[in-house]
TrEMBL record:
<feature type="transmembrane region" description="Helical">
    <location>
        <begin position="100"/>
        <end position="120"/>
    </location>
</feature>
<feature type="transmembrane region" description="Helical">
    <location>
        <begin position="149"/>
        <end position="174"/>
    </location>
</feature>
<keyword id="KW-0472">Membrane</keyword>
<feature type="transmembrane region" description="Helical">
    <location>
        <begin position="21"/>
        <end position="44"/>
    </location>
</feature>
<keyword id="KW-0812">Transmembrane</keyword>
<protein>
    <submittedName>
        <fullName>Uncharacterized protein</fullName>
    </submittedName>
</protein>
<keyword id="KW-1133">Transmembrane helix</keyword>
<feature type="transmembrane region" description="Helical">
    <location>
        <begin position="64"/>
        <end position="88"/>
    </location>
</feature>
<feature type="compositionally biased region" description="Basic and acidic residues">
    <location>
        <begin position="238"/>
        <end position="250"/>
    </location>
</feature>
<feature type="compositionally biased region" description="Low complexity">
    <location>
        <begin position="194"/>
        <end position="212"/>
    </location>
</feature>
<feature type="compositionally biased region" description="Pro residues">
    <location>
        <begin position="213"/>
        <end position="233"/>
    </location>
</feature>
<feature type="region of interest" description="Disordered">
    <location>
        <begin position="193"/>
        <end position="250"/>
    </location>
</feature>
Amino acid sequence: MVDASGTPPRTRPGTVTLSSWLLILVAVIQVLNLIVALTVVGTIRDVLTEAYAGTSAEGAADIAYAFSLVMAVVSLLIAAGLVVLALLNNRGKNGARITTWVLGGILFCCTGGGLVSGLAGGMTGGGTTGDVPSSDEIQRRMEDALPSWYTPVSLLLGLVALLALLAALILLALPKSNEFFRKPKAGWEPPVPGGAYPAYPSHPGQPGYPAYPSYPPTPGTPPSAPGGQPPSAPGDQPGERRDPEPPSGS
């Protein structure tokens, strides 16, 4: 990796590279989990419609279906954001690393909560409220209608994403990663040919030397022509040869 002019090149450590690949893996799992969820969203809607038919919560199926579509869009945005953050982290952008910690922490909590809820889904119960079926009844209908592979695949994808995200966040906090994201010091820049050299700095507490003033010419001395040549006599033309005057008295 080569930084801007005036700064030494930086080598990206393996911890940052591995962290970026793990972030991309989490993004891929987000997309896979979304595909799995979309394959059964119609089945879930049919189960809820049948379960809540003729009750006060008859519109719950449509609400759950709309919520699933919104979460699908959010999952795609999160996956795209993780890929962008991974690329920026590889370039040493400290702001991207901070954003990764914030977004990754929120995603870690949401994924962990969903994973715990999925594992404990069959053990939680609830009573009925009015004419609405109980949560046990809804859970039983879901298990009968959904494919047998849906729950294990969802839990496996969630567990892998959780572990990969945690490892990516830890790798970004290691000392080697901190050194890579630290702002480099500007190096020495050679002077540009034809440019002016900078003034030599004076030591602290010691004033710089002032520039010497130019002295006025001595009275009676004719000014010199450009280039240090004596001024030409009146009437002389440039390039004209002038014969010497004969000595007086001859």
